[in-house]
Design goal:
single chain; mainly alpha; 0% strand; elongated
């Protein structure tokens, strides 16, 4: 078999392994999935009217705030799901299975590729489930065309890929699963510091640069523009640039850690 065929075969095997682990131990995925759902329901039904009036959406109208909120919640869902990837990688490292894989006649990169593809698939499924909850409580993207939906799904997959590679690096660099979970928490915290819940203009002046110059804000604004027809401007290119940059950073960081000789 060619080197490419071996890589594809071994990566498929590792992907199947990780999906089986996720199916057998669903508690971590469910816990991470419940957080964005609870936040969605909390902000819409408890704070929706107040938040809508506060951001100048034309009075107290939780339906309009729901439309504003959903893109940020979807990105928050991806950030939370990738924490599970960091925990899974750290668990494999801590239990010694990675050391075992190193001694086997398999493609070296297939171990990480299996984790990454598995995580991206879990992110997509989580986004679909959270999106279904949003639709059930009234979210509608009536102005989005089929092309807009395809671009939105592509952006979500690209964000998932970028954050997963970063999470894999965090898992490889952590001494145990608990540390990996803590180290990956910024992936879920950063959306709270973005334009996910309120516009940047409504934030204090000293905080606006923090919210503006980070990866989640351009991705959220781009997704908001695709689904709701708002102005995207330069956010589309910034979102893609952030995703490509983070994916490359995470890839080289992860492969460097993985290929490092064990102590």
């Amino acid at each position: 078999m060619s080197s490419l065929s071996l890589a594809v075969r071994d990566s498929s095997t590792m992907l199947r392994r990780n999906l089986l682990h996720a199916r057998r131990y669903p508690s971590l995925t469910l816990n991470l999935l419940l957080t964005p759902v609870i936040l969605l329901l909390l902000f819409v039904y408890i704070f929706g009217d107040v938040m809508s009036a506060g951001i100048g959406a034309g009075g107290a109208d939780r339906t309009r705030y729901l439309a504003y909120l959903v893109p940020g919640i979807l990105l928050l869902t991806i950030g939370g799901t990738t924490i599970g990837s960091a925990v899974s990688v750290a668990t494999d490292m801590n239990e010694g299975i990675i050391a075992r894989f190193r001694t086997m006649a398999i493609h070296r990169g297939s171990v990480l590729v299996g984790h990454v593809i598995g995580s991206v698939l879990q992110c997509v499924m989580s986004v679909v489930l959270v999106g279904a909850v949003a639709v059930a409580i009234g979210f509608r993207a009536t102005d989005a065309t089929a092309v807009d939906w395809l671009l939105a799904l592509g952006l979500l997959a690209l964000v998932a890929l970028a954050l997963t590679w970063i999470a894999v690096g965090m898992g490889l660099s952590s001494p145990n699963a608990e540390a990996a979970s803590n180290n990956a928490m910024p992936l879920m915290i950063l959306p709270f510091l973005s334009s996910a819940f309120v516009p940047i203009d409504a934030m204090p002046g000293w905080f606006q640069p923090i919210a503006e110059y980070q990866p989640f804000t351009p991705a959220i604004e781009t997704l908001r523009g695709l689904l709701l027809g708002t102005e995207i401007g330069h956010n589309g290119w910034l979102a893609v640039a952030w995703c490509v940059g983070l994916a490359l950073l995470g890839y080289f960081w992860s492969t460097s850690l993985f290929n490092r000789d064990p102590k």
